[in-house]
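Predict the 3D structure for this chain.
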Amino acid sequence: MDGKAPELDGGFFNLSLPYNQEMWIGWSLGALLFVFGFFYSPFWGFFGLMLLFLNTPHPFAQELEEFKTKAGNQEYLRKYAEERGFSFEKFWLPESLDGLKNNAGEWHFPTPGKYVWNWKKPYLPDPDSSILFEHPFMVGAPRPALFTLRAVYFTLGLIMLQFWGAVSILKYHFDTFISLFAFLIEFTSSQGLGIFFGICLIIAFLYFVIYFITSLSKSIANMQMVDMATSLVRSVAVGEAELIGQARPGPHGALKIFVDDNPAMTCENIVCYEWVREDFPAQGDIPKWAQQNLFFYVLGKLFKLFDSIYQKLFNIVESHTHESARQSGGVPFILHDGSGGIRVEPSMFERIHYQVPLNVWNIGTARWTLYGLRLGDPVYIHGEVASRTKAELADEDLDGLLGNSILKVIGNVDPPGQELIMIQGTEYSILAYSYSMMETLYLPVFYLGLFFILGIV
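Done. Predicted structure below.
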């Protein structure tokens, strides 16, 4: 954007300090509480570390906020549209103008609206071949720093534990831990307190294992996303490629979905979708196994309550634990990045990842959740670019003179060591505020192990 896209390569270490008054107040208070707590009270020390942690921005936060402010400047956008022969209202997609509130499946920077799209010749470039603001060619590919101040806070926390002797508890009171576990084992035969703590320990352990595996898998996928160069549609070649753009109508237009054939549950302008139905037991119906042991039933309810709180705090889509029906589908559409359009075949993708649901209907004891990619939405694809057949070109009356019009994107066969995928969102929206795998996974696990080793040794 004007040749001044933010630099989003974090490097080895990035010192990211607060950049507004509110952050500086919280950060300074946290620093004072940590220094006080280090010498006088571990409680206040950890409270200070928490304030430091919460008021330290992501390394890219300030640059990205400035870039958002510039990209959202009304006068700039008005001039940008008028230079291309449109009014402000007709050039921009309204949903993309308030990128500060949008989630990973929506636009964070202004993007062209339907009046700019070339409906008759969708493979041609936009006016002046203007690349989308959110394309890596404009905003850069986010590459998180290996270490940030979060790593420093982890280290300070471990040092404070050592200073206050918390680590030595494991060494001097190791027999207490052994007695505690013996106590739990002793009570496991009576379905009492021992079983309760035992189950809690097992759940905590399984949660940690699942979190570790999913974090590792997600981090590896993110690294592949960062390392792979994004191609422009106008110059993409046959073979494996990464493309980012806007979903626009292809020769088949878009779909109007009737979820579970119910006219009251509809959604329009869909190019690919998936809906899930869940049937929940009626309120007051206790399963037979729970009637035999009410303790386990209450324990399950408590776990469900804490799990729902966690999902709301971290904006996680609730898992479909009572799934009874599922359906997916779609039509070929155009991925357009401003430089040109290319045909995408969603039916030939093994993996399609949607973000938050388009709509959720709760009726009685059933719930329907609809996910979908709509016209105008951002889309990231790591796929296989293949040549289209003569019959396919003839169906659209294409002469084949435009290189990107004779290609299509599919994703049903993974190359060695790679996973082809289509994701609702862009590389920026998925990775912009992520941290390195070293800092989010390896370092905390290393410090946790070091805590126990220091205590035992």
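The mean pLDDT is 79.
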